[in-house]
Amino acid sequence: MQPLINGQQSPRPARDTLFGWRPLWWQNKLLRAAAKNVGLILTWYFFSTCLSIWLTQLLGKRHGIFGKGPFPAPLLMTSLQFAAQNLMARLVMRCGLIRKVQDKEALSWRQYAKEVVPNGVSTGLDIAISNYSLSLITLSFYTMCKSTTPVFLLICAFIWGIERPSWNLAVVVAIICTGLIMLVAGETQFNLIGFMLVMSASMLSGLRWTITQVLLQGTDAHGKSGGPLEVLLQLTPVMALTAGACSLATEQLWYTLPRSPYFASPSHLLVTGLVILFGGAIAFLMVWTEFTVIAETSALTFMVAGTFKEIVTVMAAVLFLGEDFTLINAMGLMVLVSGVIFFNYFRYQKSLQTDLGMKKSHSLDIVEEGRQDRGHHVPPPGSPSPAKATGLTNVILRGHPEG
């Protein structure tokens, strides 16, 4: 975003066209960015919690709407909502509410097949399986099981050689697994199939967010693939096809839909369509804010915020849906969340070390270029560095002029 005022700014509060003034802290870029990110995260909390409660109310075996019982085809509903999200994203872009990213690089078919299709398939499977599991287990148990995603992130990282095993990460995995065991032991309405489904969704969740960050923030090989809505436009067709294929393969639509009260008459069909559209609108707003959080921050910040969001969701399930939450559940949740916090801390420490290494490498490049400009001999790679260069590197890293 371009600054509104260039050069020196007046010490008095900046004027605002709506309220007439802004507080002094608003002139600080870091505080503005922090306030923006906190606002995005809180908005994401709101829509995510609303969507979770709405899905449980519609799909849960003890719920349903208008006394009709649970919706008979969760995967079909998920596919239709993906299609609705695509239409909503196109409508928002067409109305000019959100502008396209001007410097976006168009994806080739090869890049689309390599990046978008795996992301869309994994995202579609993750959300579809998650929604289906809500028809078998409680929202609080689902949320707590979904918190085990870091374990599967680490397993995939170990298999692909991205992460090296360490005792710290082993402790994290042990803590999260201990919390999961306590959650299963304390669940009063345990369903094995639902548990297996939500754990499968957790495995897919780590994969989909890793690829999502590549699409949103880019890599060294190519730029990012546009803003959050543009990424949503790319992903939702693949997501809808994936969930739709799963629905056709497993839900026997030709048998279940005609016998369901949700499709018993034209009026029921209209109400059902509006209900699905309403859920799609909530999901669209949630995914929009979700992708925006990742685009504005990082997947790590998203995961940290997600840890606390899960606690909020569990509390909402207990308060608004009357779900049971035993002492063992509470202890298991505390253990699991502590493991996730440790995981995020170790990842944050590693990212700091990586950034410091990049800064040191960049500083050494500056030193060598400066010595070449002054006619000094630059030692070949691998030879001992002179003391002066090392001292200058430290000065550059500290941000002080050379003494």
Write the layout of secondary structure elements.
Elements: H1 29-59, H2 74-94, H3 109-133, H4 139-146, H5 149-160, H6 167-186, H7 192-217, H8 228-250, H9 253-256, H10 266-296, H11 299-321, H12 327-373, H13 387-398
Give an overview of the whole structure.
It is a single chain. This protein is mostly helical. It has 2 domains: 29-357, no CATH class; 360-398, no CATH class. Helix content is 70%, strand content 0%. It has 13 helices and no strands. It has helices at residues 29-59, 74-94, 109-133, 139-146, 149-160, 167-186, 192-217, 228-250, 253-256, 266-296, 299-321, 327-373, 387-398. Helix 11 (299-321) packs antiparallel against helix 12. The chain is globular and about 70 Å long. 35% of the residues are buried. InterPro entries: EmrE-like, Sugar_P_trans_dom, TPT_transporter. It is found in: Membrane. This is Sugar phosphate transporter domain-containing protein. Keywords: Membrane, Transmembrane, Transmembrane helix. It is a multi-pass membrane protein.
Structure summarized in a few sentences:
It is built from 13 helices and no strands. By secondary structure, the protein is an all-alpha fold.
Distinctive features:
403 residues, mainly alpha, 13 helices, globular, disordered N terminus, disordered C terminus
